[in-house]
Specification:
The complex is a heterodimer of chains A (203) and B (864). Chain A has 203 residues and is α/β, with parallel strands linked by helices. Chain A contains seven helices and six strands. Chain A has a six-stranded mixed β-sheet, sandwiched between helices. The chains are: A alpha/beta (203), B mainly alpha (864). Bound molecules: guanosine-5'-diphosphate and magnesium ion.
Chain lengths: 203, 864
């Protein structure tokens, strides 16, 4: 009956201008938006993909990078199943802020959240962060790592598909035992109107 | 039978309907099975037109509704089917059909009875969510409208498994829309706010459905509303955009967000307030909305006016705590927060009772204290390193803001609490005159002054509880002229019942032109001045003796004296005042410490006060005399008249008839039939007969205190009230109305006799007498204080340990009354450090000032 079997919430964070919105647009709409304004607060997109013949719905929450929206954006971390932390490979400061972002995630997100580090704009010639540096950082902090280009559609599909697959994997292996409704983690997300069916399907 | 027939008919007619339309659906595999499809599906299919632009087919919709009403058990399947159709249409971007499906859902929702809705609602909400997930603004707005419609329906049996977090998340996101088209942006934001309002309405009445007050929701809702409100100054809609139609549409996001916030805050119960306020404070912090603070003020006023009034105190408390959290922020931010506090604190004042009042005051004073020490440090380093003093300026503004908040708060409390607060603040004023303390002293006195200006004096004995008056007087002869000025200002505002203060700020001999408001002083006034006049006049005199007086401090002392003259002085006490005036003249003539300028300034206030007296007490001949002296001065010694100058060219030592003459004034008094005997001893120091030593008969209630009863230690008077038992009962008896009257009279009598003794006994003898008693008295007093101190701490301990609450409270009450009495006696008994009373022992070490009542009642407030 339902048009998906799993529902996962994915939140993108990272400094303003690293290309979060472009990544989401590329993935959900297949385009690279020309000159859209900076995201305010939070934006929302949805995409249903297929993994192993199962429909997986991804709710994607794209957040504003600016400090002043931190209060609203943080409130979305809590219920995230996956957090994509994005930096711009051609902009050192966006990489330098990663520890701050990690601290935020530590504080506001579930500790079981799937964390992915993404170095975006890999198409750019003026790279400042070598790939292995990003990789090292990700490894040290127990995150998945990927370099992408929203512009050239490089690794974007892969990024989200891997996330979907990984989350589904987790859901299948750990979820079969009953989940706890109070915890917002993937193992026990609370039911929402939309999620209801998803959860009931899993069991 | 009827139903069967009806069904049959419809089936027949369905069979002949165009099948092409249905076959566009992959869900419907072919036309041949359509006849076998369940009836509800066919009814649903029939509401869709061939051409989406034609809109919902009304007739068929009626049929569907009728069907749903008559077979409510089918409602959930109808809902599910409609949802699936819409989901497919969304996928194929056939928005026209989606709109129709949603419309049908809406109609069914409204038409069907509440108890049958439950399952249908699930499909309905899935549909709404589906639409909200679409990227089309049009569908999102449509979905919101449907959601709001749903939110306004009361469901009989709420569905406890239903969750609204998606809606809160999505609506909050919509509140932040940055759609490039301004019109759409506005519409999406409005929809977001309405959606949030809907969620709140739907959930607020039942926490079990969804606790909307959870931080996970509030942290989204509050910033979303605030974000829209703060944009009020930058309207999104262009002025030239066409005027929208309809009541709902006319609202702009800021207005709607604001009314939504009012509604939300108004529904918050005590446990929810923190989760409402926390995101507000964070939002203001992050969006840097404290400086400037218009929006913060606006927001907090909205909160204060919508919150259930019994909780308004919590808002103040929370804001105060935020000030704590910002202790390391820039003084500008702190000033702004304190300013917001001052703007809303008044609203809370009406609801604050008991300890909460003192807690607020205490917290403000603590902030002040911290700021003072911060400032002291800053000034210190500024002195040494010559760094900029800009920080200090901001810090001072912050202190002003705190004092304002304090004043605003006090302003809205009943007067009796203002007195309590003034005494509380006084208890916090540091006693020592060390460098660091002076700043704090002056800040606290400024706060005190602020509260004092809000107090409307009616009875002076209420405005000046003994212990409070004593502290004030003691400080009015402190070494620091700025402090003395502040203390005088406090006295001014508390004394000035007839609003003459402005006219009396500068000394003048032209009293007529002042148009003073003077009424005859009451009996209570007379008692007050009789009790305290001696202390007050002596203190005034002593303050004028100080060599670091400035024009301002001398003028302030003049103003105080003039106000006392207007408010309090009557025939009975006019001699004392005139004697003060004469003594000041003597001081100006004989002092070796004062500068020539200061002496001229004293002469000037002497003439101004002399001119004032006959306006307050009808003494015609004194008026004539005053006029004469002033005329003489105008002619021959204008430098002895106001205005007070900083510098005088003259060096003449005035003599002769430019001066006030003792004998002539005495004659004026005698002529008016007043007893002028005290005028006979005009030498400085003659003011020192101190009522405070003698009038303490009232309310004696402790054996050990009674031992030092001043009555028995006073010369020539037999101890008066041997019947006094020192129990609670006796105290009650004494305080019962009849007793008070008779006691008062008896007391009066004692006092009169005592005063008589003091007035008539030779000065030297008096000195001798009191001196000998002085040591004994002093010793007894310190014993007494020790006892009291242990008694109070014991009481506090016993309170802590007591297990029986009830008995405890009773005892508490009693001891409260006890200690009140004790304190009162203290107040009057403890001789002040400044007294150069008959005892010449000026350095006589005094026991520390007694602990005020609150200090023992709320010891936790007194931890520095
Ligand atoms: N060269 C290049 N530019 C990109 C890429 N992704 C985003 N940008 C540009 O980076 C800027 C910021 O992108 P945006 O998605 O708004 O960043 P956000 O603030 O993280 O959402 C825009 O000017 C984009 O055109 C990319 O993969 N390659
Ligand atoms: Mg963005």
């Amino acid at each position: 009956m339902e048009d998906y079997k799993f529902l996962f919430k994915v939140v993108l964070v990272g400094n303003a201008g690293v290309g979060k919105t472009c990544l989401v647009r590329r993935f959900t709409q297949g385009l690279f938006p020309p000159g859209q304004g900076a995201t305010i607060g939070v934006d929302f997109m949805i995409k249903t993909v297929e993994v192993d013949g199962e429909k997986v719905k991804l709710q994607i929450w794209d957040t504003a990078g600016q400090e002043r929206f931190r209060s609203i954006t943080q409130s979305y971390y809590r219920s995230a199943h996956a957090l994509i932390l994005v930096y711009d490979i051609s902009c050192q400061p966006t990489f330098d802020c990663l520890p701050d972002w990690l601290r935020e995630i530590e504080e506001y997100a579930s500790n079981k959240v799937l964390r992915i580090l993404v170095g975006n704009k890999m198409d750019r010639e003026d790279r400042e962060i070598p790939m292995h540096v990003g990789e090292d950082f990700a490894q040290r902090h127990d995150m998945y790592f990927l370099e992408t280009s929203a512009k050239e559609a490089e690794n974007v599909e892969k990024l989200f598909m891997e996330i979907a697959a990984e989350l589904m994997e987790q859901a299948r292996s750990k979820e079969l035992p009953r989940y706890d409704t109070n915890s917002p983690t993937i193992n026990g997300r609370s039911t929402s109107v939309g999620d209801g069916s998803c959860c009931s399907k899993i069991s | 039978m009827a139903i069967f027939k009806c069904c049959f008919e419809t089936q027949l007619s369905d069979f002949f309907e165009p099948m092409v339309q249905k076959c566009t659906d992959p869900g419907c595999c072919c036309w041949c099975c359509s006849a076998l499809r369940p009836r509800y599906k066919r009814l649903v299919d029939n509401i869709f037109p061939v051409n989406p632009q034609d809109g919902l087919i009304k007739n068929n919709m009626e049929k569907l509704t009728f069907y749903a009403l008559s077979s409510p058990e089918k409602l959930d399947r109808i809902g599910e089917y409609l949802y699936q159709k819409a989901a497919r249409d969304i996928y194929r971007r056939r928005n026209g059909l989606v709109v129709i499906a949603m419309e049908a859902m809406d109609q069914l929702l409204v038409a069907c009875h509440a108890q049958t809705l439950n399952l249908f609602v699930e499909s309905f909400l899935k549909m709404v969510q589906k639409l909200l997930e679409s990227t089309e603004p049009q569908l999102q707005i449509l979905a919101t409208q449907s959601f709001v419609r749903f939110a306004n329906i009361e469901e009989d049996t709420p569905s406890y498994h239903r969750r609204y977090d998606f809606f809160v998340s999505k609506f909050s996101a919509m509140c932040h829309s940055n759609h490039t088209d301004r019109d759409w942006c506005n519409k999406i934001r409005l929809a977001g706010i309405r959606g949030l309002q809907g969620v709140v309405r739907k959930t607020v009445s039942d926490d079990l459905v969804e606790n909307i007050w959870e931080p996970v929701h509030m942290d989204k809702i509050m910033p979303s509303l605030l974000y829209n409100m703060q944009n009020a100054r930058y309207p999104i809609s262009q002025p030239d955009s066409p005027a929208p139609h309809g009541e709902e549409d006319r609202q702009d996001p800021p207005t709607l967000a604001e009314s939504c916030m009012r509604e939300l805050v108004g529904r918050a119960s005590f446990g929810h307030i923190k989760s409402v306020l926390r995101p507000v404070l964070r939002h203001l912090d992050l969006h840097k909305l404290w400086v400037p603070n218009e929006f913060a003020i606006h927001t907090f006023q909205i909160i204060m006016f919508s919150i259930q009034s019994q909780y308004s105190y919590t808002v103040v408390e929370t804001l105060m705590a935020h000030l704590d959290d910002n202790s390391t922020s820039s003084p500008e931010i702190r000033t702004s927060i304190a300013d917001v506090l001052s703007k809303i604190i008044a609203i809370a004042a009406g609801e604050s009772v008991g300890p909460s009042v003192l807690e607020i005051i205490n917290s403000l004073l603590n902030h002040l204290r911290v700021s003072v020490s911060k400032l002291a440090k800053a000034e210190d380093s500024a002195r040494h390193k010559l760094v900029s003093r800009e920080g200090s300026t901001h810090e001072k503004l912050y202190q002003e803001a705190l004092i304002n908040a304090l004043g605003e708060f006090a302003n809205h409390l009943p007067d009796y609490q203002k007195i309590e607060i003034m005494m509380f603040i006084m208890s916090k004023v540091p006693h020592s005159e060390q460098d660091g303390d002076v700043l704090l002293q002056s800040m606290l006195l400024k706060s005190l002054l602020k509260v004092g200006t809000k107090y409307q004096t009616i009875q002076l004995n209420q405005a000046f509880p003994v212990i409070f008056l004593e502290r004030l007087l003691r400080m009015s002869v402190g070494p620091n002229p700025d402090m003395r000025l502040l203390v005088n200002k406090i006295l001014h505002t508390l004394l000035d019942r007839h609003r003459n203060l402005d006219k009396l700020l500068k000394p003048t001999v032209d009293v007529d032109s002042l148009k003073l408001a003077i009424t005859k002083s009451s009996r209570l006034d007379a008692i007050f001045i009789r009790k305290h006049g001696g202390d007050i006049f002596l203190t005034l005199y002593e303050s004028l003796e100080l060599s670091n007086n400035t024009v301002e401090t001398i003028e302030a002392a003049y103003t105080t004296t003039a106000l006392i003259c207007i408010e309090l002085v009557c025939e009975e006490s006019v001699c004392d005042l005139l004697r003060l005036i004469m003594t000041i003249q003597d001081l100006a003539l004989t002092s070796s410490k004062l500068s020539l300028h200061q002496k001229y300034q004293l002469h000037a206030i002497v003439s101004s006060l002399l001119a004032l007296v006959p306006h307050c007490v009808p003494l015609a001949s004194l008026q004539t005399y005053a006029d004469k002296v002033i005329a003489t001065r105008i002619a021959r010694a204008p430098y002895l008249l106001p205005p007070l100058l900083r510098h005088y060219d003259s060096t003449v030592v005035p003599t002769g008839d430019v001066l006030l003459d003792q004998a002539q004034i005495t004659a004026c008094l005698s002529e008016a039939g007043l007893d002028a005997t005290q005028m006979a001893r005009p030498q400085p120091g003659s003011l020192q007969h101190r009522h405070s030593w003698v009038d303490s008969g009232m309310g004696a209630n402790a054996v050990d205190i009674n031992e030092v009863d001043s009555v028995s230690s006073s010369p020539g008077v037999v101890k008066k009230f041997p019947e006094e038992e020192l129990t609670f009962e006796s105290l009650k008896r004494i305080l019962s109305p009849e007793n008070v009257e008779s006691r008062k009279e008896a007391e009066e009598e004692t006092r009169l006799r005592l005063s008589e003794t003091y007035r008539n006994a030779p000065f030297g003898e008096l000195v001798r007498h009191t001196q000998s008693k002085g040591d004994v008295l002093n010793e007894r007093l310190s014993q007494l204080l020790k006892k009291l101190a242990t008694k109070q701490s014991l009481r506090y301990l016993s309170e802590r340990q007591a297990t029986e609450r009830e008995r405890d409270r009773e005892e508490d009450q009693r001891s409260e009354e006890d200690s009140e009495e004790e304190r009162d006696r203290f107040g009057r008994h403890s001789p002040r450090g400044h007294s150069r009373s008959q005892s010449t022992d000026r350095d006589m070490q005094l026991p520390p000032a007694p602990q005020p009542l609150y200090e023992s009642l709320f010891p936790e407030l007194f931890v520095y």
